[in-house]
Amino acid sequence: MSRLIIEASTPLCLLQDAGRFGMRHLGVTQGGALDWVSMRWANWLLGNAVDAPVVEITLGGFSLIAEQDACLALAGADLDARLDGQPLTPWRSFMMRKGQRLRFNQPLSGARAYLAAPAGFVAPLVLGSCACVVREGLGGLDGFGTPLVEGEYLTYTGVAPGLREVSVQQRPDLRSNAPLDMVLGAQIGSFSGQSLFDAFNAAWVLDRRADRMGIRLLGPALQYQGEPMISEGIPLGAVQVPPDGQPIVLLNDRQTIGGYPRLGALTPLALARLAQCVPGNVVTFRPVLQVQAYEQQVAFLRQFESMPVARCGAGQP
């Protein structure tokens, strides 16, 4: 068993996998990596299962020291990662020698980086997952939803297949300003005509009131004209509109039911892009049919599975 010691961390650095499923009838949310696309790539770089546990590092402030030589992988945001002071760019696997320090400083592009180890980091399963949900006290290294802290060890048992990198053409564009696709919801017809125009034509600014439960957006106030609602189940990516008219996009650690009307729900690929945005970024929405969202998802996964292996070039860390 190989180990990495955590030298520095923040409450935003968490152990995550694909999340918990089949538990919402118990009031347990799913958790899991917010940018599931980057998590997949991090695991692909090491030949892991796509849902193997990884470290989700949000906005930096995380540092590790290797106790043995290690082959790790990094995908997602560029958080100014440095290996013994030398820049380390994401979307590749890399060697970390015994005693070397890996530090994530601050965002240069995107918000969340994903660090993977061969076969995934070792952690107890709670309700079928090690995904850390702090609010519910589930998952993480201790099984009780505790963020990663200084002095803890990250352990893994696998062996990497060799150094890989994701081709430039296949790396997600974290700076993209393309509209976020939304499948329309059951209450869409109960918003005013002006609100529907604004929802899909206005620019929405990400508020500072954002966490793994949801992201509040600032823009024109949307007006719901329907009857009061009874609380109902909330899907991942639901775009709720509370009485103040400012939408909230609900994420992995959301509550399981809610009574606010919904414009719809973002597609999985749109959610992965949104997870890499920071407060102050501007987003727009585009309505799509459910069948379109399904076809996009299937096409992405097929492309991912057929991706040829790209080996790191000479001189890569």
UniProtKB/TrEMBL annotation:
Top-level division of the source organism's lineage: Bacteria
Domain (Carboxyltransferase) ranges: 25-304
Organism: Pseudomonas laurentiana
Keywords, comma-separated and alphabetical: ATP-binding, Hydrolase, Nucleotide-binding, Transferase
Pfam families recorded: CT_A_B
Stored PANTHER family: 5-OXOPROLINASE SUBUNIT C, CARBOXYLTRANSFERASE DOMAIN-CONTAINING PROTEIN
Any one GO molecular function term: hydrolase activity
Alphabetical list of InterPro entries matching this protein: CT_A_B (IPR003778), Cyclophilin-like_dom_sf (IPR029000), PxpC (IPR052708)
Record Gene3D superfamilies: Cyclophilin-like
Record-given protein name: Biotin-dependent carboxyltransferase
